[in-house]
TrEMBL record:
InterPro entries in UniProt: Alfin (IPR045104), Alfin_N (IPR021998), PHD_AL_plant (IPR044104), Zinc_finger_PHD-type_CS (IPR019786), Znf_FYVE_PHD (IPR011011), Znf_PHD (IPR001965), Znf_PHD-finger (IPR019787), Znf_RING/FYVE/PHD (IPR013083)
Family: Belongs to the Alfin family.
Originating species: Digitaria exilis
Keyword entries, A-Z: Chromatin regulator, Metal-binding, Nucleus, Transcription, Transcription regulation, Zinc, Zinc-finger
Main localization of the protein described in the UniProt heading: nucleus
Tagged with keyword Zinc: yes
Gene Ontology annotations for the cellular component aspect, listed alphabetically: nucleus
A Pfam match: Alfin
Protein name: PHD finger protein ALFIN-LIKE
GO biological process, one term: regulation of DNA-templated transcription
Task performed by this protein: Histone-binding component that specifically recognizes H3 tails trimethylated on 'Lys-4' (H3K4me3), which mark transcription start sites of virtually all active genes.
Length: 243
């Protein structure tokens, strides 16, 4: 196809610079995160074990797709893990999603460094540095890094737990935690939309799964948050309701 790479129905011109490759990586990552978080019910339903080998694709336009693998050999880009649907019903749902997340991280890196093959050593190092500043898909889906950050924060305060609700004041978010610093949330992503933490926005943390959310994504206002002692996100509330 000459100088254009096909994105399963989307024509995408290969990124050339480290910055452009990182933008491509970040967009594909956002698509995968949306599939495994905000659109997880739709994603789960599409991964029918009765169907043939399916893959999860994330595209540069931030769209995701569950589809059969590319037929041409060799493929224009590295392919994601094959047959993610087969293990869906044989594993705990959360473990299965974490497994898909791990394979997705591997695929995202392989695509990025496929594009980066023509970069020099310093540019490849700079590209990896930018990528490494973001949480992996696995860390977001499993909540691993949020849990580690919360445990460190708890240890720093003599084991005293911090309230997770953040209250907005004149456009600036202020923590009701005991002197909590914004650096604790520097790599936190919204469990619904995948957006990166911003101190100028209102956020709220779930006391069950310990993930963080934009207030607007879970329909919680700062005023409403003040009356909540223990917040349960929609996902945890739905799990309790099904039990």
């Amino acid at each position: 196809m000459g100088d254009a790479a096909s994105g399963r129905g989307h024509v995408v011109y290969p990124p050339r610079s480290a910055e452009d490759i990182f933008k491509d990586y970040r967009a594909r990552r956002s698509a995968i995160l949306r599939a495994l978080t905000h659109d997880v019910e739709d994603f789960y339903a599409q991964c029918d074990p009765e169907k043939e080998n399916l893959c999860l694709y994330g595209y540069a336009n931030e769209a995701w797709e569950v589809a059969l693998p590319a037929e041409e050999v060799p493929t224009e880009l590295p392919e994601p893990a094959l047959g993610i649907n087969f293990a869906r019903d044989g594993m705990n749902r959360r473990d299965w999603l974490a497994l898909v997340a791990v394979h997705s991280d591997s695929w995202l890196l392989s695509v990025a460094f496929y594009y980066a093959a023509r970069l020099n050593r310093n540019d490849r190092k700079r590209l990896f540095g930018m990528i490494n500043e973001l949480q992996t898909v696995f860390e977001v889906v499993s909540g691993a890094r949020q849990q580690q950050s919360k445990e460190r924060s708890s240890m720093d305060n003599g084991g005293r737990a911090k309230p997770s609700v953040k209250i907005e004041n004149n456009g600036k978010a202020t923590d009701e935690a005991y002197g909590e610093d914004d650096s604790d949330h520097g790599e936190t992503l919204c469990g619904t939309c995948g957006g990166i933490y911003n101190a100028d926005e209102f956020w709220i943390g779930c006391d069950i799964c310990e993930r963080w959310y934009h207030g607007k994504c879970v329909k919680i206002t700062p005023a409403k948050a003040e009356s909540i002692k223990h917040y349960k996100c929609p996902s945890c509330s739905n799990k309790r309701a099904r039990q």
